[in-house]
Structure to design on (398 residues):
């Protein structure tokens, strides 16, 4: 933890968000849909070990990591916290490299595979695997048909256990998406192909936080899984940490219209608060210029605070401002204890940022400042920076 910038994680909110996702996905009802909690990429910047323990205590039975090394660290964190690590399955979502096969076998991590070469790396280990089917992402996954038949044959010959079949929707946040409808049909065909080949996977899973938020796919997924005597599962990451992508609308298509209202947004709260301290406070006269290239000029006397954070810490340079274009802001605590909004002035530097505290009384060097949290969210940063909240959260380097 940096003494100049740090994050605080609200485990209560994380648990509440997980339960909200599970309820929206139908996990507490007869639909039999479970939720895999994604903690890869250091739990989207929130701290993988801490979040994994909290999620397991909230009822999670599956955790999603990027690779075997992350899976091993999760097992160690659970053990250190006195939590029964055997109560959770860990899915390595981004494939297998040659130097990871031993760790996967010994660490009890379940890898996602889609090539015969990946399967060969695990030969003789008896490992559980999940096969990803490419239904339209052209990223990870095997295509159905001859390629899938060949992969299934290799899995059988290598003595591995086919524990699950999955796919990923490229436009899950679009309600009524014809593309998602087509991906569903392709996945149904692939699942049927797997069953006809003599395999009986325990899990069938697809989708993301947006899949649950839009609300169109969980029921379909549960019905598909039930048809092949398996359990349904969705994979949620962003929503666990308090955010959802905006829902777009497609007027018509095989996926069906409607379902465009969020099932989650009002139920979620951001888990991360990112803070720093005021490094210095000074008064500037009218005409003073601020930051690199003097992109901001004080038009009247101002009181400003200097913060010891910048783009090297994940505070995006796009949050900079000019006299013509407002940028981002932070929240500082006034003398009366109320958080006040302090706009960023000029350019965000590598390790320093200047903010306007003219209208906030009582700010002193050493006072805490909220960079993300109450009054300023990852959605706000993403909107100004022209990106998505995923990137904002993953970019915090406190």
């Amino acid at each position: 933890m940096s003494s100049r910038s740090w994050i605080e994680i609200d485990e209560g909110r994380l648990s509440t968000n997980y339960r909200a996702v599970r309820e929206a996905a139908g996990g507490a009802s007869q639909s039999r849909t479970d939720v895999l909690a994604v903690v890869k990429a250091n739990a989207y910047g929130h701290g993988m070990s801490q979040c994994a323990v909290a999620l397991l205590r909230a009822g999670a039975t599956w955790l999603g990591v990027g690779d075997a090394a992350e899976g091993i660290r999760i097992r160690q964190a659970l053990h250190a916290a006195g939590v029964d690590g055997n109560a959770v399955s860990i899915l390595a979502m981004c494939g297998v490299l040659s130097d990871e096969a031993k760790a996967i076998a010994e660490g009890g991590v379940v890898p996602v595979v889609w090539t015969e070469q990946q399967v060969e790396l695990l030969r003789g280990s008896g490992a559980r695997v999940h096969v990803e089917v490419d239904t339209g992402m052209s990223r990870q996954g095997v295509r159905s048909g001859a390629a899938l038949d060949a992969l299934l044959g290799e899995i059988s010959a290598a003595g591995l256990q086919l524990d699950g079949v999955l796919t990923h929707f490229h436009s899950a946040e679009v309600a009524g998406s014809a593309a998602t409808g087509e991906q569903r049909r392709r996945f149904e065909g692939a699942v049927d192909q797997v069953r006809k080949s003599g395999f009986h996977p325990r899990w069938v899973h697809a989708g993301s936080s947006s899949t649950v938020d839009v609300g169109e796919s969980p029921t379909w997924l549960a019905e598909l899984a039930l048809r092949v005597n398996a359990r349904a599962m969705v994979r949620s990451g962003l929503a666990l940490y308090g955010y959802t992508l905006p829902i777009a609308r497609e007027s018509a298509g095989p996926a069906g219209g409607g379902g465009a209202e969020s099932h989650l947004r009002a139920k979620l709260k951001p888990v991360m608060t990112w803070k720093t301290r005021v490094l210095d406070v000074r008064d500037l006269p009218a005409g003073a210029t601020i930051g690199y290239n003097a992109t901001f000029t004080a038009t009247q006397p101002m009181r400003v605070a200097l913060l010891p954070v910048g783009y090297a810490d994940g505070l995006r340079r796009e949050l900079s401002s000019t006299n013509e274009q407002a940028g981002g802001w932070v929240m500082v605590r006034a003398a009366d204890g109320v958080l006040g909004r302090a706009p960023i002035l000029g350019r965000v530097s590598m390790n320093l940022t200047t903010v306007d505290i003219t209208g906030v009384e009582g700010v002193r060097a050493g006072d805490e400042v909220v960079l993300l949290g109450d009054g300023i969210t990852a959605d706000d940063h993403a909107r100004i920076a022209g990106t998505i909240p995923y990137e904002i959260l993953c970019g915090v380097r406190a």
User: Anything to note?
Assistant: The longest strand covers residues 161-167. The mean pLDDT is 92. The chain has twelve helices and 20 strands.
